[in-house]
TrEMBL record:
<protein>
    <submittedName>
        <fullName>Lipase</fullName>
    </submittedName>
</protein>
<dbReference type="InterPro" id="IPR002921">
    <property type="entry name" value="Fungal_lipase-type"/>
</dbReference>
<dbReference type="GO" id="GO:0006629">
    <property type="term" value="P:lipid metabolic process"/>
</dbReference>
<dbReference type="Pfam" id="PF01764">
    <property type="entry name" value="Lipase_3"/>
</dbReference>
<dbReference type="InterPro" id="IPR051218">
    <property type="entry name" value="Sec_MonoDiacylglyc_Lipase"/>
</dbReference>
<dbReference type="InterPro" id="IPR029058">
    <property type="entry name" value="AB_hydrolase_fold"/>
</dbReference>
<feature type="domain" description="Fungal lipase-type">
    <location>
        <begin position="61"/>
        <end position="204"/>
    </location>
</feature>
Length: 262
């Protein structure tokens, strides 16, 4: 697996952050003036942005995390549901499945009713793939989990079309069968920041697990593929010891910038 470069990390992190904004002008971030297509959810809200530059071979699909009460409720549906309708041979979190199979309300005049989010997205990216472009998927929280499923499904239909998958604060998606059958493990980077509790969810060993390369940003270092149990124990220790760390002189030195130069 290749290393994720800093500029790539920063670009995908910025795009994931901006995905929660109501207005996004793609040309301000290096994409073509007409290089954006929006996929709505069942409420007519922006759910997925497809971004590209006509002079670049990379298409970036950015997926929002949970951004309304109903989406948060869906995260409690922790039973598994088959992904056969997406052309995949495993089951995933029922809530994530619902987000992909929900109806996508029309955004543009040529959009029709009765089309799922997955179907709408596939209709947008298929012509781009046929032009020779490759797909990068990125998303925050449940958006990252959904990005993995979308990427795997696209790779099944269009082999070697996926460039990479980069997720931020992603919860687990499925069980051992998912982990074994997921075909993009060598192209998937799961970014976890410090003590992000969502990355431990759902907290059901064996029924839920991760796939891909973990990059854990912790104590000003990057740790690769730290086992979940070790990460959990370190997190618990940090929560217990954190009040005492504020007594260390290093904290006082680090905060020297609060004082004006005299």
């Amino acid at each position: 697996m290749k290393t994720l470069k800093r500029y790539q990390y920063e670009r995908y992190a910025v795009l994931c952050n901006l995905s929660y904004k109501r207005v996004f002008k793609q040309s301000n971030y290096g994409f073509s003036p007409r290089g954006q297509r929006v996929i709505n959810n069942r409420f007519g809200q922006t759910f997925i942005r497809v971004l590209w530059n006509n002079h670049d071979d990379e298409v970036i699909i950015v997926i929002k995390g949970s951004h309304n009460l109903w989406d948060w409720v869906l995260t409690t549906r922790i039973w598994h549901k088959s992904c056969q309708e997406f052309g995949l041979e495993y089951s995933i979190h029922s809530g994530f499945h619902h987000l992909l199979s929900q109806e996508s309300l029309p955004k543009y005049n040529h959009d029709t009713l009765g089309v799922t989010v997955f179907e709408r997205l596939l209709s947008v990216i298929s012509p781009l793939i046929k032009q020779g472009k490759r797909i990068t998927l990125t998303g925050h929280s449940s958006g990252g989990a959904i990005g993995c499923i979308i990427g795997d499904a696209i790779e099944k239909q269009y082999p070697k079309s996926i460039k990479r998958v980069v997720t931020f604060g992603q919860p687990a998606i499925g069980g051992r069968l998912f982990s074994n059958k997921y075909s993009l493990k060598h192209k998937t980077y799961r970014i976890c920041c410090d003590l992000d509790i969502v990355t431990f969810l759902p907290p059901i060993p064996f029924l839920y697990c991760h796939a891909g390369k973990l990059l854990w940003l912790y104590n000003q270092k990057i740790y690769e593929n730290t086992p979940t149990i070790i990460r959990f124990l370190r997190s618990i220790s940090s929560w217990v010891l954190r009040p005492f760390t504020y007594h260390l002189m290093s904290k006082y030195i680090r905060n020297k910038d609060y004082f004006d130069e005299r």
